[in-house]
Specification:
Layout lengths: L16 H20 L4 H4 L11 H26 L1 H21 L3 H14 L2 H12 L2 H29 L5 H8 L1 H10 L9 H13 L1 H8 L5 H17 L5 H8 L5 H26 L3 H19 L5 H29 L5 H30 L3 H24 L1
Length: 405
């Protein structure tokens, strides 16, 4: 996604577009190990004493759980001591945890390293808080959309690179190599400015902002209590999309017996590739009507997930994954626009820390639900569950949109 409309240095804009792109690059490299190595836990754990990899599922979500627990604390500290300091802390926290994970020689030590990765990390909420303290309105929503693009790019590229390096470097020891990435990101971020709009200023304007909330709500279609609605939509969106992840490869191999690992991997990555291609255009289309776009996004997610159930051919899987990708793009972009609106007059660290917690809770709930329904209904059951959740969220988005009118 492009940030060409963000000026080099304009009044009221504390970061130019080159600096925003640098932040996105730092988030990308920091996400590489966090997203690329967990799929290989089943190969790492036998070397640590877990011969059959029974703990892989639990350890897969361990960083997510502890990110959810730690994000609100780090967000409040960021509002108090500065967004840049806490963003640097998150990058250095990842560096330390990756080094400990790569050096671990037992399952308990490796588990502790993953727990620390979750609790000391939280780079996404820290990055968003930093951006929200420096940017506003459309500038902020575009930057948040770009950060999601960084996450999607890392999600696509990281597992491929880790697999390519595996013949030469064991995935377990790749944690030691990957620790260089967040450390490099921390060094680069050290050259960026502290955001000009500090949490104290946000607190000082909160009262005045509250008095104008009704006017802004009428103008933007964002009703009172929109922050709770934002968190509700965030949870529902993450739940509906993530629930299809754990057993997708199994479903593809079951429906397409001749398909190799490469085909399954491409189908897994296809929705994220759609985001990378379409996010910029989608942002331009929905920035004035994010609730409508969010309802449409949930509907397309439901359509894409429902399409997995009858899909028994490669073209059918491509179409249904593309529909899911378009819905995912609409949802993520509209949530970024709504988050940028909600951030006005609020301390950004606390808000984005709470949003991160809600998002991670949605991911954990999706993983647990996927395991539960898969055990009783097979690999197609999670996508059916996700379809129901997405349809319910689409209906909620429509109802709240109409109520604002």
């Amino acid at each position: 996604m492009s940030l060409d409309t963000l000026p080099r240095r304009a009044p009221g804009v504390a970061l130019d577009r080159g600096q925003v792109h640098a932040i996105a690059a730092c988030y990308f490299v920091a996400s590489f190990a966090a997203l690329g190595l967990p799929p290989y836990l089943s190969e790492i754990l036998p070397g640590l004493g877990d011969r059959d990899g029974h703990w892989a599922g639990l350890l897969y979500i361990a960083p997510t759980v502890f990110t959810a627990l730690g994000a609100p604390l780090w967000g409040r500290l960021a509002d108090r001591f500065g967004q840049k300091r806490l963003l640097l802390r998150a990058q250095l926290g990842l560096t330390v945890s990756f080094l400990l994970a790569g050096a671990a020689d037992s399952l308990p030590a490796f588990t502790c390293a993953l727990v620390l990765q979750g609790f000391l990390g939280g780079t996404f909420s820290a990055t968003n808080g930093y951006l929200a303290a420096a940017l506003d309105g459309t500038h902020l929503s575009k930057a948040l959309t770009l950060m999601q693009g960084s996450a999607r790019a890392a999600l696509v590229a990281a597992p491929i690179l880790v697999g390519a390096l595996s013949p030469w470097i064991d995935p377990h020891r790749q944690y030691l190599v990957m620790a260089v990435l967040p450390l490099t990101a921390a060094v680069l971020l050290g050259f960026l400015p502290e955001p000009a709009r500090r949490a104290a200023a946000a607190t000082a304007t909160a009262t005045a902002t509250a008095s104008r909330a009704g006017v802004r709500a009428e103008r933007s279609g964002d009703p009172p209590g929109s922050l709770k609605l934002l968190y509700t939509f965030e949870f529902a969106f993450v739940f509906a999309t993530v629930i299809s992840f754990p057993y997708l490869i199994t479903l593809v191999h079951e429906r397409l017996p001749g398909a190799g690992a490469a085909v399954a991997g491409i189908l897994f990555a296809l929705p994220h590739l759609v985001y990378l291609v379409a996010a910029g255009r989608v942002h331009a289309a929905v920035q004035a009507r994010p609730r409508t776009g969010l309802a449409l996004g949930f509907a397309l997610v439901a359509l894409g997930l429902a399409g997995h159930a009858p899909a028994h051919s490669l073209p059918a899987f491509v179409l249904t994954r593309a529909a899911l990708g378009l819905g995912m793009t609409l949802g993520l972009v509209c949530l970024a626009v709504l988050a940028a609106e909600a951030a006005r007059g609020r301390a950004p660290g606390r808000m984005f820390g709470t949003r991160e917690t809600v998002s991670k809770c949605g991911a954990v709930a999706a993983g647990l639900a996927a395991a539960l329904v898969n055990s009783s209904g097979g690999p197609a059951a999670p996508v059916v569950t996700g379809t129901v959740a997405a349809l319910a969220a689409a209906l909620l988005a429509l109802l709240t949109r109409r109520s604002t009118r």
